[in-house]
Write a structure and sequence with these properties.
Layout (H helix, E strand, L loop, with lengths): L3 E13 L4 E13 L3 E6 L5 H8 L7 E6 L2 E2 H5 L7 H8 L1 E4 L11 H11 L4 H14 L15 H12 L6 E5 L7 H18 L2 E5 L3 H7 L2 E6 L2 E7 H5 L5 H6 L11 E9 L7 H9 L4 E10 L2 E11 L6 H9 L3 E7 L20
Parallel strand pairs: 3-8, 3-9, 6-7, 7-8
Antiparallel strand pairs: 1-2, 1-4, 4-5, 9-10, 11-13, 11-14, 12-13
Bound molecules: adenosine-5'-triphosphate and magnesium ion (MG).
Length: about 350
């Protein structure tokens, strides 16, 4: 699972029109490893769609390189505007799913799935066999003869996914594939992507603006802002990164200090520490009243990961020993608020100290 399948290196994309320039990608380095589901999140305009369109060279990067499955697509693209044969062949190994499905309304479901195979010159019988197999895979065998207009949004997206898989791609790119769908349909489409990822070993790079999508299916994630990747890593790595915005959004553990003489501490539990009764041990050993301000517990790949925000009576310096105890238990401990009068002075590890105000 460690082989990189998609690598972008210092990828830049500048859109130029007569009177202005927009830097949509400003030096993006991204590594997606084989067999993972990788989510890219960020606000509108952050450059997510530009990034995914540059990964399959639908959009030509201004500079930088894109490698997919060991091939440098930017080198294949050359300078001409018409994609040379080598690039077209490489693209066949990259499936793409779109927000608005992009199905042809005049074709049946089966013919939509067959379309990329027609373009690749696959004989009719082989196309039909492959389309039937793919429709079975996405749970739509009974809809082969219907037209897109007769399908629900979720069914249309399943057709879109089947079509994206027709060329037996190694990589599936998805740009907001579920954002036009209701929450329940979203869940079922995400589950399908997860199943395909597991069954076929498909690597999935998906763009979303919904944190729930990342939470539901992603092994790794990156946060984009203003054309740059500002955070990236596996979900577990992100959770272990002090001050990670993605971790905060994935596991929001809100809650404010109840008064001035209080210390607010964010705890992250991994592996074994997730199942030990650390908080009750803390309360018993040091005879402190621990208040839980917020908590979130999730299971990733069968391992529990949790975050908790607790409040201890007294200022930071009154709590040095209990905080040391928590660290000794193998927890990651971030002091979120070190007593109002002492912020930034008393805390011994300023890098880990951050204001709680939002
Ligand atoms: N074809 C284009 N010509 C000029 N500017 C563009 C073009 N496509 C995108 N941009 C600009 O590039 C920036 C990044 O756009 P992009 O579509 O990649 O954002 P996004 O993160 O996908 O946003 P959203 O969440 O709204 O889909 C934006 O400022 C956008 O206006
Ligand atoms: Mg977009």
């Amino acid at each position: 699972m460690d082989t990189p399948v998609i690598t972008t290196t210092d990828l830049r994309k500048v859109y130029r029109s007569r009177d202005r320039e927009v830097t949509a990608l400003d030096g993006v380095d991204l590594t997606v490893r084989e067999g993972e589901v990788y989510g890219v999140v960020g606000r509108s305009g952050a450059g997510k769609s530009t990034l995914i369109r540059c990964v399959n060279l639908l959009e030509r990067p201004t500079s930088g390189t894109v490698e997919v499955d060991g091939r440098d697509l930017t080198a294949l693209a050359g300078r001409s505007d018409r994609a040379p044969a080598a690039l077209r062949a490489a693209r066949a190994g990259i499936g793409m799913v779109f927000q608005h499905f992009n199905l042809l309304s005049s074709r049946t479901v089966q013919d939509n799935v067959e379309l990329p195979l027609e373009i690749l010159g696959v004989p009719r019988r082989e196309r039909a066999r492959k389309a039937a197999e793919l429709l079975d895979l996405v749970g739509l065998s009974d809809k082969a003869r219907t037209y897109p207009a007769q399908l629900s949004g979720g069914q249309k997206q399943r057709v879109g996914i089947a079509r994206a898989l027709a060329g037996e791609p190694k990589v599936l790119l998805s740009d907001e594939a579920t954002s036009a769908l209701d929450p329940e349909t979203t869940r079922s489409v995400l589950q399908l992507l997860r199943d395909l990822n597991r069954q076929l070993g498909l690597t999935v790079l998906l763009i979303t603006h919904e944190m729930d999508v990342v939470k539901a299916v992603c092994d790794s994630a990156a946060l984009m802002k203003g054309g740059r990747v500002v955070e990236s890593g596996t979900v577990a790595e992100l959770l272990a990164t002090p001050g990670s915005e993605l971790a905060d959004e994935l596991f929001p553990v809100g809650g404010q200090a109840s008064g001035p003489d209080r210390t607010v501490v964010d705890l992250t539990f991994h592996g074994e520490s997730a199942t030990r009764p650390v908080i009750s041990q803390l309360a018993r050993t040091y005879n402190v009243d621990v208040s839980i301000l917020g908590a979130a517990m999730e299971t990733y790949d069968g391992r529990q990961i949790g975050r908790m925000r607790i409040e201890l009576p007294g200022r930071f310096e009154d709590n040095v020993v209990p905080i040391g105890f928590l660290r000794e238990q193998g927890l990651q401990v971030d002091v979120a608020e070190a007593g109002i009068a002492d912020v930034g002075i008393a805390a011994p590890e300023p890098a880990r100290t951050r204001a709680v105000a939002k």
